[in-house]
Amino acid sequence: MTTLVNDIAKITLSTPFAVGDVNVYLVKGDALTLVDAGPLTDTAWVQLTEQLSTLGYTPGDIEQIVLTHHHPDHAGLLDRFPSSVTVFGHKYNRFWLHRDDHFHEVYDRFFMQLAIESGLPHEYLAAIPKFKSPLKFMGNRKLDVVIGEGDAVPGMEGWSIIETLGHAQSHLSFYRESDGVLIAGDHILASISPNPLIEPPFEGKTERSKPLLQYNASLKKLLDIPISLAYTGHGDNIEDVHGLIPRRLLKQDERAQGVLEMIRGNRVTVFEICKRLFPSVYRKELGLTLSETIGQLDYLESLHYIKKEKHEGIYYYFV
After folding, report:
1. Cα 27 to the center of its chain, rounded Å
2. Where among 226, 248, 270 does a domain terminate?
3. Model confidence over 124-140: pLDDT tens digits?
4. Structural domains of the chain, count
5. How far apart are CA 147 and CA 163, in angstroms?
């Protein structure tokens, strides 16, 4: 049964995605706040309504929604709430929540260029528009209030905002110093490592972000914060955050070393490495596997283990 513990209730909703169920959180404070909102499906809406009911609330009682990040499994149901509900989040959310012509133009152009630079054969380029298919589980609603690190969220007294970029360029975590509780979104999960996803650079920027490097830096950032418990976006709570982080960083380094061995003695493209890393799923999950592969290459390049050069529009990596 869903219960409020220390003014927080964990609500678990089904998603249509491979990651499985998503956790959203009801936080009782000066305002009744929902942290994240689940995917835009009738099933998730019914589950949310039922679990709120066990707590004595209806969706109409929610006064504000605070987003950890913009992915559809976390922000999709925003459309089901009345316009009187204030939506808070990182400034980058606005491009994803309210997708206009500019969004689609930037998105399509960026990923087509990335695919070409990654060495995708021409027959794969038709799959690029499908990268946006998860957005069918997201509504179209504007962000009301931009928040970032150092800001306070009205109605959530005692909570501070930590910018934890990496899994998404909009990712925020929320920390309550009084008891060391962290609402971590997808920044750190109990049983899996989140995939740091490549995203287009909006706001006039030209260079893409390097999300795996961001993600590692954001993980290390948590080591300086006394966290007693992390409520996560998927799966179980985490009690030993500081013990888990070094293990995740070590596993990431080991994976990158495996990629380094694939490159040693060769000149290879992102796509060639992607096929070797994910031989059984790269066709079906091309966007996710390319993101993961590029992340490993960014990591190795940052340590000066590998170099790259561009030839006829395609990047080649070598030692």
Report:
1. 21
2. 248
3. 999 998 899 999 999 99
4. 2
5. 10
